[in-house]
Design brief:
- By secondary structure, the protein is mainly β.
- It has a domain of 139 residues: OB fold (Dihydrolipoamide Acetyltransferase, E2P), CATH 2.40.50.230.
- The protein is 7% helix and 24% strand.
- It contains 1 helix and 13 strands; from the N terminus they run αβββββββββββββ.
- The strands form 5 sheets. Strands 5-2-1-8-9 form a 5-stranded antiparallel sheet, with no helix packed on it. The chain has a two-stranded antiparallel sheet with strand order 3-4.
- The N and C termini lie far apart (112 Å).
């Protein structure tokens, strides 16, 4: 019977050592260990468990690179559930852009059990004795990002904040200060008082009150004699 084993994909170590050689057994064991410690591969988001503006949530992700047997067959990997994902944050200030279903990111494997960690954790022993377990991954988004429909964009010409046509931009704070000239292309609605230190210039009419009384064209009645005044000059 012909020997077809030479056509099968093999480990680099199998090409060097005889299968019965002690060195081969050692290196094969080492290779298996390194294959786990190097578990940092791309994965796709299957489900997102977001807490909104609360604590960072978790994702269910599926590794994109399958396992491979010695005879070259591909073995699909299982979904990893409730994997914590990275969020850009310092103290109680954060930029919250949660991953979305279908996003691709990088799985980062921890060497020990991290299931007992949280935002309130102090240094403590691992939750178990497991080592380099896929359940102890973190998810780092996002790789191969598609064209963004809403974004904060910066280049040498300045900054742009863009939302979808159907989306809103909300600024909330005790006081919001804008330094520089402000140009608004659209209507302005103010729920409160307006205080201006400089002059107000209008190219069109200014209307006031529920009756929309014109500022330049309104008139006053004359109490001392019959009639009304002319319009403002």
């Amino acid at each position: 019977m012909p020997d077809n084993t030479s056509s099968l994909p093999v480990s680099p170590y199998q090409k060097i050592f005889n299968h019965n050689d002690l060195s081969h057994i050692f290196l094969q064991t080492l290779e298996g260990f390194l294959s786990k410690t190097g578990y940092q591969i791309p994965a796709k988001v299957e489900e997102i468990h977001s807490n909104g503006t609360g604590e960072a949530g978790t994702v269910d992700v599926k590794p994109l690179l399958n396992l491979q047997t010695q005879d070259g067959k591909s073995l699909e990997q299982s979904v990893l559930y409730n994997v914590p994902y990275f969020r850009l944050q310092g103290g109680d200030s954060a930029l919250i852009i949660d991953p979305q279903k279908g996003d691709i990111g990088q799985l980062i494997l921890n060497g020990r059990d991290v299931s007992g960690l949280s935002s309130e954790s102090d240094p403590n022993k691992p939750a178990s004795f497991r080592l380099f377990d896929p359940n102890d991954c973190f998810f780092l988004p996002a790789l191969f990002g598609k064209a963004a429909e809403q974004y904060i964009f910066s280049n040498k010409n300045g900054w742009t904040i863009h939302a979808k046509d159907t989306a809103n931009i909300v600024l909330e704070g005790k006081e919001i200060t804008i330094s520089g000239n402000l140009k608004i292309k659209g209507n302005v609605s103010i729920e409160g008082d307006l205080t201006v230190k400089g002059k107000i210039t209008a190219e069109e009419d200014i209307l006031a009150g529920a009756q929309n009384i014109s500022l330049p064209n309104h008139t006053h009645s004359v109490s001392a004699a019959p009639g009304i005044t002319g319009i403002a000059q």
